[in-house]
Amino acid sequence: MLLVQPSPELQSYIRITFNENPQTRQRDLDSIKTWLRQQPHLPDAWDEQRIMTFLRGCNFSLETCKRKLDMYFTMKTAVPEFFRNRDVARPELRQILKQAHLVCMPGLTPDGKRVSIAGASPDFHLTNVADLFKLLTMMADVRLHAEKFGVAGDVYILDAAATSLTRQFLKMSPVLLKKFFVCVQEAYPVKIKEVHVVNAGPVVEMIMAVVRPLLKEKLRSRIHLHSRLESLHQFVPKDLLPEEYGGSAGRLEEVKENWTRTLEEYGGWFKEQEGVGADETRRPGRPTSYDTLFGVEVLQVNCSIKSPPSSRITFRMGDRIAELFRDRTVLVTGGSGFLGKVLVEKLLRCCGVHRVYLLVRSKKGKSAQERLDDIFSNVRYT
């Protein structure tokens, strides 16, 4: 079985968690269906099970559900690299399914949470990062239909053991990462209760420095790092984990094969949904600005700035720092703040960096490029 459904007792608990009232549930569903028909930029109809999953994920708040559904269909149009050509028979997707470990475990925790695992084999090689995110959204779409009674939340286990995966993560486009996290946090009715990073080493800290600014504060506080599996078992019951993670829920490869078959079975649905998304030309009011939606641009900084004689600095003990960054490409988050500006100045004047990228968001009516220009209009950079 792909996903074990909650027992009647657990269903009652989950209904309380979702603020779900069986007596008004159908009325709420009908209300959302009517609302969809009234939106000229959204599809007139969608299947009831998926709408019900959105209602549950939004605690049956109709307004929250409307916003989430609008964002879901908006993202389907805004990010075609995630939502087009979703055919697991394609060689590039098949290769990821073979080398990566992307599974949602069939069982539920005693309090009704679902456990998902993401990792990779040592020889994992990713040609196109968007294809990895595409598979993850495909699995999320399957769950919208397969979670018949809902779950009380999600627990994610990210395995950092594959050094090839962590190295490739550091090469990922921050803009693409931002698109994925907007999908996860804004477009899907997911309740992320815990995130566990296992086999965490020094490289993971570097990755977290890039990822944390893209996450909501509530989610940041739910991330746990584990250098050993024993500490993971204090949070996740062993009977829900595969044997490779010290559990008794079968072999990971068997769960992978089950998910691969399921994605193949949903092939017809994925094809039907190719053209289902928000039509911004028909949206009432102003169409969605994708620059505002993702709120971040990665801008390259001119590294040919020369230090005048009066500003040349001898690092002394800092020589090691200068040597560390010499001829390197550096990504800076928070570079528009006071300390960030100082950091960028030191990198440019004293460290001989090859290239600097700043992660800058649109803010207060100014585009990312305009904010970058404001930063460099300061005399310290000229």
TrEMBL record:
Family matches, as SUPFAM superfamilies: CRAL/TRIO domain, CRAL/TRIO N-terminal domain, NAD(P)-binding Rossmann-fold domains
Protein name: CRAL-TRIO domain-containing protein
Signal sequence segment: none
Highest taxon listed in the record's lineage: Eukaryota
Pfam families: CRAL_TRIO, NAD_binding_4
InterPro entries named among the record's database cross-references: CRAL-TRIO_dom, CRAL-TRIO_dom_sf, CRAL/TRIO_N_dom_sf, FAR_NAD-bd, NAD(P)-bd_dom_sf
Any Gene Ontology CC annotation: membrane
UniProt GO molecular function: phosphatidylinositol bisphosphate binding
Organism: Tenebrio molitor (Yellow mealworm beetle)
Domain (CRAL-TRIO): residue spans on this chain: 146-253
